[in-house]
Write a structure and sequence with these properties.
This protein has about 290 residues and is an alpha/beta fold. The protein contains 11 helices and 12 strands. Strands 1-12-10-11 form a 4-stranded parallel β-sheet, sandwiched between helices. Strands 3-2-4-5 form a 4-stranded parallel β-sheet. Strands 7-6-8-9 form a 4-stranded parallel β-sheet, sandwiched between helices.
Amino acid sequence: MRVVVAKSAGFCQGVRRAIGAAEQLALDGAFTAVCTDGPLIHNSHETARLAALGVRTLSPGEVPSPGSVLMVRAHGVSPRRMATLTALPGVKVHDATCPFVRNIQNVCREESESGRFVLILGDAGHAEVQGLSGCAEGRCAVVSGPEELKALPDPGLPVSLVSQSTRDEASFAAARAAALERWPDARVINTICGATRTRQSELTKLAEECDAIVVVGSPHSANTRRLAEIAGRSRPVFLAEDATSLDPAAFAHFRTVGLAAGASTPDSDISAVRGFLEKLNCQDCRQGQESP
């Protein structure tokens, strides 16, 4: 089977930066423990690899012991959460927030401080969005799309619209149109990160030359799920955390498969899925499909 891999598949710079910092802190040995405030990134394989190096994910409510270093994950945290962490006795905080996410946090803070109500297009339960909401200091609302935006009570303030960094351009355009229809003077700030835009653009082109798309990554990763949603608009799509989640029989009628991956997917997972797909013989797939 022919496999075409997206050029930007795998770690984005923000994730690579956080992973590198965790590895360095573990190797330095300057702290009694290296901990992360929740999963550093949304990928169980990479989290397990880091755990083997001594980087431990704290459970909710767990407090690191004095002498530890505590990493703020790439998704960032709210100012209130950061204040809580930096007040922990004897614990050093290492902020691994993605620089692009930090820029969005600054936008939310500035818009709120200027007396505007911030509309955040995103997933309400996502760590990044929770951090963005905290930066707006309560003068905000999280919406998943135009319908929720239209149903919001009028805040009685000028409105600004921003986005979670991993949203797709189509959903942001729809939210923008709805916001401007309701509030013609709304300030619209497209905060989808450049890496996300590149991946989504590549995926659209990839779908044009392939029979199906496999997106490698965790189902808990927002940007990975978004890639699968985009691919599914035009082609059969398979979201796979690793090669073991793929059924050879499902590929019986495909000759060319595109391979994309979320921003928190390590190269090892991408290589394993690519190897699995390249070894598939379409005739073997059909025989597997026909077997009782």
